[in-house]
Amino acid sequence: MTTRLKAPDREACKRIGRSVRQRLEADPGIYKLPTDQAEIFAVGDFLNAAECQRFVDLIDKVARPSELHDSAYVAKFRTSYSGNFDREDPFVRSISRRIDDLLGIEPENGEPIQGQRYLPGQEFKPHNDWFYTDQEYWNLEKTRGGQRCWTAMAFLNTVEEGGHTHFVEVGASIEPKPGVLLIWNNATPDGLPNEGTLHAGTPVIAGEKYVLTKWYRTRRHD
Ligand SMILES: O=C(O)CCC(=O)C(=O)O
Ligand SMILES: [Fe+2]
């Protein structure tokens, strides 16, 4: 596959992959999913109840239909509502910084935290967070931070039914639990895009689902 052959930012994905892995594995409070297919970690109580609620309220203010790179194609692909928070908001900054510190990635490599809200019937179909470097959008993304190496995603509420994060290749379906932070390496230990990270936000059946996501690049993101 061309993505694999070209693999821009491979060395950086490999280097950052190694440092974050070592840091997370050294922390006894962090759980690693028992699979060889992808490096996926979970942290319980990363956010407290008040912090989760504060984000839920912020998401209700900023959420609008989600945008992806190829908007015609994705009309039914990511049906949740999403929005970026005000980067200067001290609360958002402090949580963003807490995630940076946990992973040990340079704050400048992080994209702004994004919030998402799914209502019943809404979902995010199976996808990879890493960029397909043979696509048109890569021409821009390579100039503003390059490949997405790690993802951090927090559940902010209890969902009545549905709305799991399903790692399709790994075969793990994670039920939303408020305050839990999921972290995964989008690359293999060799720095290549990892097909094993394919994942979905399964449809919400009852209730609502709120999450926040922070993606990290291999270089400074502006
Ligand atoms: O909502 C989920 O469970 C998945 C969200 C996701 O995959 C993303 O934001 O990239
Ligand atoms: Fe994703």
Automatic annotation (TrEMBL):
<feature type="domain" description="Fe2OG dioxygenase">
    <location>
        <begin position="109"/>
        <end position="218"/>
    </location>
</feature>
<keyword id="KW-0479">Metal-binding</keyword>
<dbReference type="InterPro" id="IPR005123">
    <property type="entry name" value="Oxoglu/Fe-dep_dioxygenase_dom"/>
</dbReference>
<dbReference type="InterPro" id="IPR045054">
    <property type="entry name" value="P4HA-like"/>
</dbReference>
<protein>
    <submittedName>
        <fullName>2OG-Fe(II) oxygenase</fullName>
    </submittedName>
</protein>
<dbReference type="InterPro" id="IPR044862">
    <property type="entry name" value="Pro_4_hyd_alph_FE2OG_OXY"/>
</dbReference>
<dbReference type="InterPro" id="IPR006620">
    <property type="entry name" value="Pro_4_hyd_alph"/>
</dbReference>
<keyword id="KW-0223">Dioxygenase</keyword>
<keyword id="KW-0560">Oxidoreductase</keyword>
<dbReference type="Pfam" id="PF13640">
    <property type="entry name" value="2OG-FeII_Oxy_3"/>
</dbReference>
<keyword id="KW-0847">Vitamin C</keyword>
<keyword id="KW-0408">Iron</keyword>
